[in-house]
Specification:
- This protein has 474 residues and is of the alpha/beta class.
- Among the domains are: 106 residues, Nucleotidyltransferase, domain 5 (2-Layer Sandwich); 96 residues, no CATH class.
- It contains 14 helices and seven strands.
- Strands 5-4-3-6-7 form a five-stranded mixed β-sheet. It has a two-stranded antiparallel sheet with strand order 1-2.
- Strand 1 and strand 2 form a beta hairpin.
- The protein is extended.
Amino acid sequence: MPLDPANLPKTLEECHAFMMEQDSHHREIVTALFQQIAKLQAEIEALKERLKTDAGNSSLPPSRSRKKPLSNRKPSGRKSGGQPGHKGHFRTLSPAEEVDKIVLCPLPPRCFCGGEIHIKDKVQLHHVYELPQMKLHLTEYRLEKGLCTCCWKNHVASLPQGVPGGITGPNLTALMSHMVSRYQLSRRELREFLREHYDFKISLGTIFRKQKLVNTALEKPAAGILDAIKKNHCTNMDETGHNRDGKREWLWGIMSQEAAFFRVFKSRGKKVVAGLMGDYYGIVVTDRYAGYNLFPDDRRQFCWAHLKRDFTRLSQKSDAIVAGIGRNLLACQEELFELWHEYGNGEITKDTFSQKIPGLQTRIEHYLEQGSHTDPALKTSRFCKNLLEHSDALWTFVSNDNVEPTNNHAERCIRPAVTWRKKYFGTRSDYGSEFVGRSMTLIMTCRLQSKSAFDMLKQTIDRWFLQQEPPLLC
């Protein structure tokens, strides 16, 4: 900024004072610029880290990874497909009682050479599966009407017990619901499916009302699942985002090896955990989300698959010390998984496994202690201190049978709900959110028990129309 000649100093003392003032002003500018540079450098480092984020070092799904992992497998040079020596897999013939129709294919009386063909006692079997003609079964109920000769009141006969008042029976109602929940058809796609395959025309409003009916029928069976899960020594918990009319909500899942319970809540806070599992005193396998701190460390198991991603992210830091700590922790994690797989495959005993863990535990705690003294601005210090604070939750699986070191079971159970959310973009009503939770509870519980979710849904709706108790899911 140019100086006004009229304001220039006129004496030596004024010159000295003016220069001191300018020097102080310039120092303030330089200090502010250095602070701004430091802030921008920190933002650049944070953005560089975000660019490195993928499914291997964060909770991002593989579909959202910016870079796809490259396979380390070297090409073998062989053609694709089955290789020589590969054991073949063949479909076995169905038993005779399951065959609907038999067609005998006769041989000609003579061979092409002119010789007579002798028919053997045995025949070669060839099975062909074919869809029957798909046509809905239509039943017409003729309800008698009458008039009382005394009071002149009109009367109409009642439908037989179990017959719905709407146009779809229990089986068709179950199919419509299953196509939406299990096979993720939209209501419009379901309407087109019914029209194209069954020549059945139905409005979107009727489909909506049938889904509400199914949602009501599933209320009691789904509610009983949570009580059954709590009877297990160990459970898994996880949560994922859910959109409700553009607002952020959360789908919570609680799983055992035989059942899974899902429900949508508006909150992701600890109060939801307390409401669902406050009366549970077994072991819970979770990620490191603070909402699960409701459980004491001796009844909680951190997911080591999540920790692997955290350690990978540390190993990719630009700070050499932090990256070294991350690599050391990653090596320890790989060693732990190798021991766990050897124990699971029966290569080592439980005693041998337990004896090797303390040394590995000491090394991991040593590296975490090193990380806790790094620059807090790098967030590594806070991460390591948090793990040290809850270190008991890292090793619960060692001293407790049937407890896994990862939360992969919960991740697999909740994945279909994530796929559903990406296609439908969430729900728009309380009924919709309830339908998601209850239908996912039915589908995943039946999958874990190797049962047909469609058969169970048909039984549930059949009994609902008959006003009977629903079947137990587990």
